[in-house]
Amino acid sequence: MDSDADWTRQRRQAIAGHAAALEAGRAAEAREAAALIDEFVRRAGERGLTPGTLQARTFDGRATYRTHVRGWYLKSNRSVAVGEDGEYYVLTVPASLRARFAGADLTPSRPRLIVGAGGGDGETVPLKQLLDQRLEAGVSWP
């Protein structure tokens, strides 16, 4: 019986250690991505790229709501953006009658170095590439 209890305790410790290491890696990745975003916001300001009011799409894609966040879209499908506040936003929200009239509330997401990683749709792009493309497009963004 003692060996079963020991095995269970060791297994729990191993799982906790793995989870802690995974979280530490994600936090480090988020810090690196946040630095890229801060640099983008600074450079966008220097280039005179005016942030616009962002819109968010419902999860089912049927409706679009305005938001209270200003920023720059990073993808032409307007699914992700950087706010003028230096936060990273995934622009999907639940359908809501309130949002239709008052606007949708956005919560910043933890940025990743690879946009779309783990999303399941197979479309992944390095964050740095999206930020650079957006800067290069200037005011003529689609």
Secondary structure topology:
Layout: H1 2-46, E1 52-58, E2 64-73, E3 80-83, E4 88-90, E5 92-93, H2 97-102, E6 114-115, E7 125-126, H3 127-137
Parallel strand pairs: 1-5
Antiparallel strand pairs: 1-2, 2-3, 3-4, 6-7
Note the main attributes of this structure.
142 residues; alpha+beta; five-stranded mixed sheet; two-stranded antiparallel sheet; 44% helix
| Number of distinct helices | 3
Rg, alpha carbons: 19 Å
How many structural domains does the protein architecture include? 1
Q: Tell me about the largest β-sheet.
A: 5 strands, mixed
The H/E string reads HEEEEEHEEH
Backbone shape = globular
What does this structure look like?
This protein is of the alpha+beta class and 142 residues long. It has one domain (2-137). The protein contains three helices and seven strands; from the N terminus they run αβββββαββα. The strands form two sheets. Strands 4-3-2-1-5 form a five-stranded mixed sheet. It has a two-stranded antiparallel sheet with strand order 6-7. A hairpin with a 5-residue loop joins strand 1 and strand 2 (64-73). Helix 1 runs parallel beside helix 3. It is globular and about 70 Å long. The mean pLDDT is 90.
